Amino acid sequence: MRILFLCTRHNSLSQRLQVELEDCGHEIVVAEVASGEQMEAAALAADPALIVAPMLKRAIPPSVWKRWTSLIVHPGIPGDRGPSALDWAILDGAAEWGLTVLEARAELDAGPVWASAEFPMRAVSKSALYRRESTQAAVDAVLRAVATFDGGARPPRLPVGEQRGRERPACRQADRRFDWRESSARILACIRSGDSAPGTLARVAGESLHVFGAHEEGRLRGEPGALLARRDEAICVATGDGAIWLSHLRRKDGIKLPATQVLGERAQALPELALPAQEQPDHATYQDIRYRERGRFGLLHFDFLNGAMSTTNCARLLAAYRHACERPTRAIVLCGGGDFWSNGIDLNAIEAAADPAEESWRNILAMNALVRAIATTSDKLVISVLQGNAGAGGVTLALAADRVYARDGVVLNPHYKRMGGLYGSEFWTYLMPRRVGEATARHLTDSLAPVGTARAARIGLIDGALDGDALIERVLRIVEPELGFWRYRAALALKVRQREQDERSKPLDRYAEEELAEMHSNFFGADRSYHEARRRFVWKLCAEPVCAAVTARETA
Ligand code: COA
């Protein structure tokens, strides 16, 4: 059946729903809309059997919902109403939360409930909950609702007693406000309720700033509100009963940037409390790159905010990777972050740079150095484990490994062009066809469509999708038998032979030269499309609304 998605933005949740519903055989037409008129036009153009609004910030007009059954995805439990469902759940310390699929009516979030799903809360930011728990709940509930509709049934009537939620107003800064004398737990909840948007305002170093990326610190203490230390690009602030780290800050009317960059000299004056990736602290603290060993495995975690890999992050990760290479292990497991795997070069850092073209260039060279080190590792097996979504160069980074596994439900965007026609580098012209063949690689990079894990595994982009619980453990169990002496030696010999053969047919350097020639003209050429697209992306300026039949059909 043809389903029209009405979205304010085709974000990770709507992309996941798209790939799941397509896997069920439905045709999905996605319309990014900013007004009732645009919704009407999109519905008339698509004339769908059903409308689903996975993430829509405006009400669907009666002219639409009276003619087409329109299902709204609301990130709250049944009965919950209002635009700040997850914000309140975090602030209230809810142990469980949920998501509801309800039919559009004149009154917002008050139509008949078609399906709902619940999940236990995790102590993470609102956007991390949204991308993992809410998204999985949305898949469960929307698939059920669509099946009910497809079967010709009406929504099951939910008993009033099961509608535990209530109407809540929009969450304002006053609701998130905290005092540094309060407990770390309370402050973390206030910050996480506003992370990633709109951010929670706090006094930091005498300035009113939006704060992001909060992590508990278990050892440092000080006068509440005082800046205690810096680590890499994060700062540590004392609370009433401990301290917390903040990775990012944003000035009013500014963009989200590393905390030390925003504070400048005030951060540089702080004592630096380095914590190398291989050191394992015995208390809660902030460590975005972690290296741990488990038997014959070296596990490298890199948890960068939004999966954005700045020049600095790439260099730090490369240093940690080189350390991992020197250890007497047989396999390196690249674990990415819990929230994102990687989204490629850091567009915010580039936008904030004095010379964005130069910084783009530095950043892509740093990414390439990392990818090259992984792709040319000859004395260990390297395995990528995608716990979270990946986009653009972040997908290519994963493909540099010998083996690629992903958590079931991860969404991949293996293309660059959306960023103003960016050509992309990271050796994608070698790494992607090597896995899926030239034709499919071309299709993936041209179609700009999201790819779900089921399809990614079918076309060979990844080696397998695994259930999310204890994902890393599962991967270790799969790979462990291959690390016995003889099998391991044979696997290494095969990998080295293959690399030598590939190098003879076309050297890695040539792939880089060709890609970088294109990137050079993207960054420094007369065509400013990349710079304009990046500006719009970073400053969240709405692109022209689009209504596109999304054709994510397989070619393999
Ligand atoms: N650099 C900086 N920030 C990035 C980023 C990047 N490369 N990729 C994503 N982000 C940020 C977004 O700005 C957003 O920040 P916010 O939560 O503070 O608003 C957050 O990550 C989540 O991104 P969003 O676009 O909302 O996620 P999504 O899951 O809906 O979309 C992508 C995923 C990958 C399609 C989309 O983020 C994207 O196009 N990213 C850019 C990828 C790219 O072109 N990289 C450069 C070439 S290698």
Helix/strand/pairing class, anyone?
Answer: alpha/beta
The CATH superfamily of the largest domain is known as 2-enoyl-CoA Hydratase, Chain A, domain 1
Bound compounds, please? coenzyme A
Number of domains: 3
Shape: globular
CATH topology of the largest domain: 2-enoyl-CoA Hydratase, Chain A, domain 1
Mean of the pLDDT scores? 95
Detail the topology: elements first, then pairings:
Layout: E1 2-7, H1 12-23, E2 27-32, H2 36-46, E3 50-55, H3 62-65, E4 70-74, H4 85-91, E5 96-103, E6 113-120, H5 126-150, H6 173-176, H7 184-193, E7 200-204, E8 207-217, E9 227-231, E10 234-238, E11 243-250, E12 257-258, H8 259-263, H9 265-268, E13 289-294, E14 297-302, H10 311-326, E15 331-336, E16 340-342, H11 347-352, H12 356-375, E17 381-386, E18 389-391, H13 393-399, E19 403-407, E20 411-413, H14 428-436, H15 438-447, E21 451-452, H16 453-459, E22 464-466, H17 471-479, H18 485-505, H19 508-524, H20 529-538, E23 547-549
Parallel strand pairs: 1-2, 1-3, 3-4, 14-15, 15-17, 16-18, 17-19, 18-20, 19-22
Antiparallel strand pairs: 2-23, 4-5, 5-6, 7-8, 8-11, 9-10, 10-11, 11-12, 13-14, 20-21
Helix pairs in contact: 1-5, 4-7, 10-12, 12-13, 12-19, 14-15
The chain binds coenzyme A.
The site of coenzyme A has 23 residues, from helix 11 and strand 18.
